[in-house]
Amino acid sequence: MKPEFPKEDSFLDFEGKERVFDYLVYEVRVGYSVRAKERKENGYEFASFSASSPFNALGELRQKIRKRLSTRYLQKGHGHLLLYHDEAKGHISMGGVVIDGKFILFQQLTSMLQAYEGFLFDLKIQDMSEE
């Protein structure tokens, strides 16, 4: 009997809030790509790849989700959002970025970065499956 690939999964974030993800599986010429997209609009998104099995990609994907959901990158302070660890991970979306499962307009991101005037930064953009 062949095991059935799950269509969804739920995980707890750093606040103990349940986050529900839908899985999409793609078979490509060189293996399998699995993506997880949070059900809420402009929420978390993750991806993983395996050359041999979608279940291997799923295992790696679940580890990525748990790790990212356990870390808080944003905090509220003085009436606006601040970078909690002087760093953030997320993904680029239309018109902004998604950090901690929250959509942040590019204008808001610019405001957050202005607090670091005179500091150095390291910008790295990569495919979701490379994390």
What does this structure look like?
This protein is an alpha+beta fold. It is about 20% helix and about 40% strand. It contains two helices and nine strands; from the N terminus they run E-E-E-E-H-E-E-E-E-E-H. The strands form three sheets. The chain has a four-stranded antiparallel sheet with strand order 1-2-3-4, with helices on one face. Strands 7-8-9 form a three-stranded antiparallel sheet. The radius of gyration is 16 Å and the shape is elongated. It starts with 7 loop residues before the first strand and ends in a 17-residue tail after the last helix. The mean pLDDT is about 95.
Feature tags:
131 residues; alpha+beta; four-stranded antiparallel β-sheet; three-stranded antiparallel β-sheet; 2 helices
Concise description?
The chain has 131 residues and is of the alpha+beta class. The chain is built from two helices and nine strands; from the N terminus they run E-E-E-E-H-E-E-E-E-E-H.
